[in-house]
Design brief:
Largest sheet: 2 strands, antiparallel
Helix content: 55-70%
Oligomer: single chain
Order of helices and strands: HHHEHHEHHHH
Number of helices: 9
Amino acid sequence: MTKSGLRELIKFNYEDLLWSLSPNEYGDEPSEAFPDIKTQEESFDLLREDSKLSLPVVDDVIKRYLEDQKLTETSHPDIKGIDIYKQAGFLTFWIVKLKPIMNLVEIPTKTDMLINEQLAISVATSLLYAKHGKGPPYSQKIIDDLKYTLRYRINTRHGLALIYESLCRYFDYPSYNK
């Protein structure tokens, strides 16, 4: 995928993510820290209005991803290109590490804290969807566990690639061995 294609993929997933936020996922409880905000839906509205995708950071994500891709191809000259799982793992790693979504104000929801992690999962799922014609049918528990792991655990690019490959193998994609 080209630099501009990667940039558009990340931008598309960011915009899609902001408009797909659901208060049902996180409850509809008022925040004690922010008494003016009556519902989580209002906090999602704030997040939509006051978050920004930093394009210089997106460009840095892409630069580092392409460097990793080149290093992998150089280290393994017998392998032509990197597989879709490594692509997903490498992009996930750099999105989570560099955090291209910035909040311009404090957002009273746990969603903002994991928004970059959700973006990384969305981008990886888009890549897997392009390969297999569908994304892994994540349960909410898998998504929550993966976001938590991305945020609070030490991850490597290759370890994330194995997670995505395992999810695809677990869900028995017909095109897995192709």
